[in-house]
Amino acid sequence: MQFTAAQIAMMINGQLEGDATVSVGNFGKIEEATTGDLAFLANPKYEDYLYTTKASIVIVNNTLELKQPVSATLLRVPDAYAAFAALLSKYQDIVAQQLNGVQQPSYIASSAKLGEHIYIGAFAYIGEQVTIGNHVKIYPGAFIGNNVSIADHCTIYPGVKIYHDCIIGSHVTIHAGSVIGGDGFGFAPMPDGTFKKIPQIGNVILEDYVEIGANATIDRATMGSTIVKQGAKLDNLIQVGHNAEIGSNTVVAAQAGVSGSTKIGSNVMIGGQAGIVGHITIADGSRINAQSGVSKSIKQPNTTVTGSPAYDFTATLRSQALSRNLPSFEKRITELEKLIQQLLAEKVAS
Amino acid sequence: MQFTAAQIAMMINGQLEGDATVSVGNFGKIEEATTGDLAFLANPKYEDYLYTTKASIVIVNNTLELKQPVSATLLRVPDAYAAFAALLSKYQDIVAQQLNGVQQPSYIASSAKLGEHIYIGAFAYIGEQVTIGNHVKIYPGAFIGNNVSIADHCTIYPGVKIYHDCIIGSHVTIHAGSVIGGDGFGFAPMPDGTFKKIPQIGNVILEDYVEIGANATIDRATMGSTIVKQGAKLDNLIQVGHNAEIGSNTVVAAQAGVSGSTKIGSNVMIGGQAGIVGHITIADGSRINAQSGVSKSIKQPNTTVTGSPAYDFTATLRSQALSRNLPSFEKRITELEKLIQQLLAEKVAS
Amino acid sequence: MQFTAAQIAMMINGQLEGDATVSVGNFGKIEEATTGDLAFLANPKYEDYLYTTKASIVIVNNTLELKQPVSATLLRVPDAYAAFAALLSKYQDIVAQQLNGVQQPSYIASSAKLGEHIYIGAFAYIGEQVTIGNHVKIYPGAFIGNNVSIADHCTIYPGVKIYHDCIIGSHVTIHAGSVIGGDGFGFAPMPDGTFKKIPQIGNVILEDYVEIGANATIDRATMGSTIVKQGAKLDNLIQVGHNAEIGSNTVVAAQAGVSGSTKIGSNVMIGGQAGIVGHITIADGSRINAQSGVSKSIKQPNTTVTGSPAYDFTATLRSQALSRNLPSFEKRITELEKLIQQLLAEKVAS
């Protein structure tokens, strides 16, 4: 798609300086952009690039005073970054709206109920009794198990698998390859050392505005539901165990894991590769640093922990620093022992 | 599916109290169940819910003495939890048996041999010379490479990929998105700093009753086989390197990794996010705690280790506790140094 | 495929001893091989197996002197291992060449441009404006998004998903289930505690000779490109964040993660389950041990670090060893305190 400077000026309510007919089809960073690109300048430290950029159009702040002539067409707005971001969102909406209809071959059970303005890609599988809302996009090769419901405005990327009976709220995004509702890891030990599977008959509920990264796994509950609450954002390759709860607006970075039955509060931040044991509670607003291993409940809201096992952040930093001083500690202790022995020897001698 | 209280009483050999004609179609927790649900009461601490539950049928222990009237139909058995679990298994078997036949479109090579009573979902791919046993379920979008064999009663969930030549025992379950038999990570360093791939021509063998979670990866051997032995249970997102062996009835929690050529014994428990280096041996019955990093063989059976690098559990706990005391250690050493200096100064002065 | 000893002797330029007409169809380890297998003997410590092996053909070093009669046909070459490895590569090339043509059903957009001698498996999806080079193999169920380009001699295994606009160099291999170009994890915090998605409009570039393991995730850049440079090898389940760069010939072991905007130099080795925070730089030739957590840039080339947080390898090993001595440290400090108190008490008394 191509847009002229005049068209974009209207979209973002910007003041146009330069050629109104020049057109762009791509976005670029001001330092890397080429002809036909739209860029922006928000941070004054990049201003030099404005005079050398090959971008055709640059969005700038109203307050900018030019020090040299500029070849690009300028669009002046109160906040260049915000205007650029809004434009990106609008652009992505336009692209997304172009995706619609049902590609063939796909498999849609006759009992499935489909909303309006949806896209179902080739090789997607829609099981029995599935309900799909309006404006939902299901990319190629996704698997939607029996009796799943997906509310309006969701995007299910290629190869996502949602097992039977799971419930997906509105405006949910699930990236490629993630598995929602696989069996929880529940096995009862038998007297002969083998394990007997405990049936996992619950489901997973993803509430509205949840986003899940690629190749993540969220297990179904043994009974009841594993729940990811409204607005939570989970990154790639994360694991959420059966019957766990992730609070609203909580953010979980890549490769972190939450074990079964643990309840994470709201507005918690969990760093990459962190792990949280099962059956504990993490208070609202907690911050769990990357690679931490949390083995006990965090009861005080807004606590920051770090380390494995995880403890209070500041204390742990001090201990970690001292732990690198251990060689000097040992030297000081040995020296003290020598001095004491001297004193004792002299006392005996005297 | 709907079952009446009378039908369920027969299935679990229970003694019926109340309306025998009431019917249920779902399972629920006693505290959350609604009309049409079947629940159970095993733990006396939940007894209060029995008098308020909306469940239509509740399975209870023979020994229960009612303190108030109950609206649900009761089914009395010697062990309510065991009866409930048995019912769940039976129910899942019934559901599973409904899955059968070959959905279209699917791709089945003409040289593949298919057993009886199987299910092959839409978009599943069955390669040349593949052998599939009886009662096997292959969900939509699974990929079964050339010359793979899958024995009876296996369940291969959506989007599982099994590379060529792998051997899957009977009663094996593989959850969605897992990759069995990808190339081992083997590259020979060249003098110019590049790496040359070492061909990986072995396979993976999953023995009977193995269960693999979602999005796990088990690499094929360079030569010979990577083996997961009978009854081992591996959770989501785990990694098993080339030529590794996982012993029978060993349990590996989510996001753990076992490097190439390492042999894990039987009945070992490996915690979440633990990592085990290559070319070592872990004795039977060992317990490797979550997030541990095991860098040396464990030769003594039933050893518990923790930490990264991993050491004996009790000693590590003590060191970790003391490590949080390091600030007080430093204070005590500094105090001792001051006192010694005083004593020495006085001695010189005297 | 079957090859006679005479045919293989020609392929590897070997000197034949024994029956030239015996034929083999498989490779095997000398200690496990059976009739119809080809094995090799390079390491003298396995020589005993030569006299008992059931392999039909064994490749041996020219210098080998037989101590007993051998039933297998021998092929003598200057370097038995090198000849065997060359044969494996040749064999895999032959197998790979048998894969060609377009299986049905598959989905190929009419605007896609396909090279020659390609294989496209059933249920593969090739989007609009996709360009695919010569000798490319795309296995069943792979998803190639709009405007992706894939250069010559690439292998894309089953169920790989490549999002729109990504660029794949030549001789690239991507194993099953990996996701290339999913959205970077970028969300702006709003005053009400919710998060607003930052559009991710960049792409991923995989340069020539890159290999990516199974179920890995490499996120697209917010703007610009996430880049994996020539010859880098990434293992299973690894995570690369948006706008990160992985240098040429760098090796990343399984389950490691590189956060957004971090630049990894060339010839770096990153161990399994290691994590690297965002916005830092790792110098060429660095070695990051398994499970390390790197929180600061590494500026000195060829540095080895370990631990979480990661520090210089040798110093960390010393601290870790001393940390296990903490119980004895405490004992020594307590003993010193007792002695000092005695001395002070005596001084007062005297």
TrEMBL record, chains A, B, C:
MF terms per GO, please?
UDP-3-O-[(3R)-3-hydroxyacyl]-glucosamine N-acyltransferase activity
Is Transmembrane helix tagged as a keyword?
no
Which keywords has UniProt assigned to this entry? Acyltransferase, Lipid A biosynthesis, Lipid biosynthesis, Lipid metabolism, Repeat, Transferase
In terms of PROSITE patterns, this protein maps to:
HEXAPEP_TRANSFERASES
Q: Where is the UDP-3-O-[3-hydroxymyristoyl] glucosamine N-acyltransferase non-repeat region domain?
A: 23-88
Catalytic EC class? transferase
What is the active site of this protein?
H242 (proton acceptor)
Q: In which pathway does it act?
A: Bacterial outer membrane biogenesis; LPS lipid A biosynthesis
Q: Which domain of life is it from?
A: Bacteria
Tell me yes or no: is Protease among this UniProt entry's keywords: no
Q: Which reaction does it catalyse?
A: a UDP-3-O-[(3R)-3-hydroxyacyl]-alpha-D-glucosamine + a (3R)-hydroxyacyl-[ACP] = a UDP-2-N,3-O-bis[(3R)-3-hydroxyacyl]-alpha-D-glucosamine + holo-[ACP] + H(+)
Instruction: Name the family.
Output: Belongs to the transferase hexapeptide repeat family. LpxD subfamily.
Q: Which HAMAP family match?
A: LpxD
Assembly with partners or alone: Homotrimer.
Biological role stated in the UniProt entry: Catalyzes the N-acylation of UDP-3-O-acylglucosamine using 3-hydroxyacyl-ACP as the acyl donor. Is involved in the biosynthesis of lipid A, a phosphorylated glycolipid that anchors the lipopolysaccharide to the outer membrane of the cell.
Kindly provide the name given to this protein in its UniProt entry: UDP-3-O-acylglucosamine N-acyltransferase
What is the species listed in this Swiss-Prot or TrEMBL entry? Parasediminibacterium paludis
